[in-house]
Amino acid sequence: MQRLYDFLRRHPTGVDSFWAVMLSGFSVLWVATVPKGPDGPAAAAVVLLFGLVVALRRRVPETMLLLAVALGLVQLLVDLPPNPADFAMLVIIYSVAAHDGPRWASRLALVGGACAATLSQLRWPVEDVAPAGQVFFTTVMSVPFVLAWVLGDSMRTRRAYLAQLEERADRLEREREAQAKVAVAAERARIARELHDVVAHNVSVMVVQADGAAYVMDSSPDQARQALETISSTGRQALAEMRRLLGILRTGEPEEAGEYVPQPDVQQIEDLVEQVRTSGLPVDFKVEGTARRLPSGVELTAYRIVQEALTNTRKHGGPDVGACVRLTYFDDGLGLLVEDDGRGAAHEMYVDGGADGRGHGLIGMRERVGMVGGTLDAGPRPGGGFRISALLPLKPAH
Fold first, then answer.
1. Burial class of residue 277, CB neighbours in 10 A (0-12, 13-18, 19+)
2. What angle do CA 215, 220, 225 make, to 5 degrees?
3. Is residue 151 a part of any domain in this protein?
């Protein structure tokens, strides 16, 4: 049954042609059998052409409407009374009103349908009926024509509404896909910054410790052993964080990678400072204000800023450099200050991506701070060295 229904939907003209043949057959029989009925080729041609109107009503509805109007006028001229073929008028009025075509055709169908019963009553009045009865009869006969137009126009409006809903759903789906792609790109950019922070910091610690171990290998085996242990622990930490980040890349969902390593927070900054101290860089660390839990994005941003700043101090500060880290808890945010007394950095190293365009560290800091709605200031100190200060609000910017 479903196959038959699908076949009929795929061949609407064939279905219309079938009903056109049926209507033309009944109409010809009516013309031939009605006593005192019209005869002649004109009447037969009219009823057959009304069948053509039904057959092609969906292919060329406007043309068939004009043909139906012409056939109605010919029917009046040749004195062909109302007959089964006139049902084609109802069909074409509905079809034109339901078709998403020019509005003149729909208006012509409505006006023509409203006038059809009146013209028919004037041409073939009902006998032995008072004028009031004729008016009533004419009004009743006009109802099917108007109703056919109303049903067709309602169908056209409904199809337009459904098409609008489908278009809106498609647009929303495309917007969701675009937002998903933007989210994926943002997540990958965040992962790239995370990888840079992890690799740059931990590898620099390992290089410093390896150089120190090689220097004191013969004269102080205990210090060399301690340096090697630091290299081992730092390498494990780097591998653990890289597994977490690569797990995010593999799964595409940060939640599924939570089994690797939790995100660093402000409480781990002290461990980070201690790790840097063991690598040979003196760091003065101080916390001001009342420590409390902060939003995870703020905590991760604070940790990465301190990590990147201390990494830059080791890389660019020169020999005998020292650093200080200050965390200040305000009522509405967290302040960070990282300074060193080294040789600092040239202006081009912290503006426009660095001297070679690859200064991802400070660029990453600014991006991180911007994501939480904070501010960042980085540059050389007046008395020498380098300073990075940031203010991270507790509420993200809108």
1. middle
2. 85
3. no
Q: Which pLDDT score, from 0 to 100, does residue 201 have?
A: 67
CATH of residue 339's domain is 3.30.565.10
DSSP state of 264: P
Q: How many domains does the chain have?
A: 2
Q: What are phi and psi of 375, to 5 degrees?
A: -125, 150
Q: Which residues contact 389 (CB under 8 A, 6 or more apart)?
A: 335, 336, 337, 338, 376, 377, 378
What is the pLDDT, as a whole number, of residue 39?
A: 56
- Is 112 strand, coil or helix? helix
SS3 329: strand
Domain end among 83, 106, 124: 124
Taking the C-alpha atoms of residue 269 and residue 285, their distance in angstroms, rounded to an integer, is 9
For the question of whether the overall pTM of this predicted structure is more than 0.85, the answer is: no
Q: Which amino acid is at 77?
A: L
The domain boundary, picked from 124, 154, 179, lies at 124
What is the block-wise mean pLDDT of the chain (398 residues), using blocks of 10 residues?
A: 74 86 86 64 86 91 93 88 90 92 90 90 82 85 92 92 91 86 72 67 72 77 78 74 64 46 79 87 91 83 89 83 92 91 62 43 77 87 87 69
Residue 256 lies inside a defined structural domain of this protein: no
The distance of Cα 175 from the centroid of its chain, to the nearest Å, equals 2
Q: How many CA atoms are closer than 13 Å to the CA of 255, on its beta-carbon side? A: 0
Q: Across the beta sheet with 323-329, what order do the strands follow? A: 283-288, 323-329, 333-340, 386-393, 375-380
Structural domain span for residue 96: 2-124
Residue 163 falls inside a structural domain: no
Residue 100 within a domain: yes
